[in-house]
Design a protein that fits this description.
About 75% of the residues lie in helices and about 0% in strands. The chain is built from four helices and no strands. The protein is mainly alpha-helical. It has one domain.
Length: about 100
């Protein structure tokens, strides 16, 4: 099982990760719309923003590995560890999994 303190860390992490991917998806949608409308000059501005997102994604991956290393299944996916959460924390984690999957 995942203790309450670790569960809260996971939940906070996945809230930040979901927010991150929503913002990244929004950026990519803007980029797509600019390309679609022929506004190729705008592409240069996206490169710097995307590089910042890539660095942040690497930070999220390091955080994921750190958190997963504290579970009994360090190589598992988020979906695979959902049963390890208890009670209300499991409900929160499942809701976040659904939200993250929908991004």
């Amino acid at each position: 099982m995942i203790d309450s303190a670790l569960a809260k860390e996971f939940i906070a992490y996945f809230k930040k990760l979901t927010d991150f991917y929503k913002k990244f998806f929004s950026l990519e949608s803007e980029k797509y719309n600019d390309v679609k409308s022929g506004n190729f000059k705008a592409l240069d501005g996206y490169i710097k923003k995307e590089q910042a997102y890539i660095l942040k994604a690497k930070g999220f991956e390091a955080e994921r590995k750190r958190l997963m290393g504290r579970t009994e299944k360090p190589a598992a996916t988020f979906k695979e560890i959902l049963p390890l959460f208890e009670g209300g924390e499991r409900e929160s984690a499942q809701a976040l999994y659904g939200e993250l999957s929908g991004v």
